[in-house]
Amino acid sequence: MNQTTKRRARILVVDDDPGLLRLLTIRLRAENYEVEAVESGAQALAAASRFRPDLVISDLRMEPMDGIGLLKELQNRWPGLKLILLTAHGTIPDAVQATQMGAFGFLTKPVDKAELLDQIQRALKISGFTDTTEEWRAEFITRSALMEERLSQAHMVAGTDARVLISGESGTGKELLARAIHKASPRRNKPFLSVSCSVASDEQLDSELFGHEAGSWSGALTAHQGLFEAADGGTLLLDDIGELPMKLQLKLLRALQEGTIRSIGGSRNVEVNVRVISATQVDMQALIATNAFREDLFYRLNVVQIEMPPLSRRREDIPLLIAHFLAQIATETGNRRIYAPEALELLATTEWPGNVRQLQNVVRQTAAVAQTPIMPVELVQQALGGAPGRLPSFDEARDEFTRSYLSQILQVTGGNVSQAARLAKRNRTDFYKLLGRHQLVPEDFKSR
Q1: Using CA of residue 160, residue 165, residue 167, residue 170, what is the dihedral sign?
Q2: CA 126, CA 106: separation in Å to the nearest integer?
């Protein structure tokens, strides 16, 4: 749900010694930390999904999963989550090895209270935790465990500079999540800028991203700073990254590798300090398989991947979202509307292929035309196109047409991509990109 209140840092403590576990819990709660205490690595992984800790403190020697095994699992599931190890004097070399593998640090038993609190404060600071507010996630209206897991993952990675690839269907809130990561990061006071890689020509997109000097590709142009420079110190979202033209993929790869950019017509490299987040609604592996996207660039961008769940997988949020949208409308217009029970039931059971964006549009549409404070089910049915559960957006209708067209042309040519591209009057690269976006495999159309 919308959360802007202060909260305490959450610490997960793991130790198979019940006495030490109780002592640490008492000490940390006395310092105003939220504490979850468990006795094994397996319990810790289960608790981490539910408790969403900001820091983990774990014993090194445990069975069957020891502290190093727990560290590896945490790194795989929640990159950026810090772990402090507790170790006996005889296992200090193992603890040193663990810090080389990514553990924040280690403490020897018996644990000194002052040293423990100092390490905790330093670990929380590095992880990006702030005890002020949760304003960073205020745009997300949710009580879904699945969505909370995604937000937890986003908060963990926000404290690092790791590049993030956000995947998910249209309308699931990929840009909102990118903005939330920026707000929760140490870069929060610097710019957040975004660009869609699918809405401009290759030359325009090149200029938009990397800038150009006066007259570099048209005498009428003046010098223009690209988004990489404009977002210096902050975050740049590359939306629809799967649509990035191939020649710009190489340029982006070099910029990420070298930390410098060269504008169109530029005579020098410019150093940039930008955190790059990418978003996509297409299968990137399918694009790579059809040579429409560089695999080396994909791995540069996909250090951490977060998949935004469709609304159909977080149905418990639909009533919350509806109430939120209606409250917004009431604030804007002064007219308070509610749905009749049958209308609310229909909204809760609709498939929502356009996800949260489509739900918001339907709520606004029905509220705008409603003649009474209580909106009937017939109004919702009308907004859904008369067919409960389905109101395709323009983009969805276009995508469906494109997929049908591509399927037909592949059928006619027997899966011959070169011939199909000629008939469609597209070059092979663009045609392969279209096939990848719509998840069509030419081999499926070849005669057997």
Answers
A1: positive
A2: 16
- pLDDT grade, residue 389 (50/70/90)? very low
The owner of tokens 């209270």 is 113
pLDDT over 80 at 223, yes or no: no
Strand order of the β-sheet with 304-307 is 192-196, 235-239, 275-280, 164-167, 304-307
pLDDT digits (tens, 9 = 90+) for 49-102: 788 888 999 998 888 998 889 998 888 777 678 899 998 766 777 777 777 788
C-alpha distance from residue 427 to each of 242, 417, 419 (Å): 17, 10, 10
Calpha distance 51→162 (Å, rounded): 23
For tokens 């304003």, name the residue: 135
Looking from the CA of 285 toward its CB, the CA atoms found within 13 Å total 2
Strands 82-87 and 105-108: parallel
Bond prior to 319 in cis (omega within 30° of 0): no
- Residue whose structure tokens are 């465990």: 145
Per-residue pLDDT band at 404 (split at 50, 70, 90) = confident
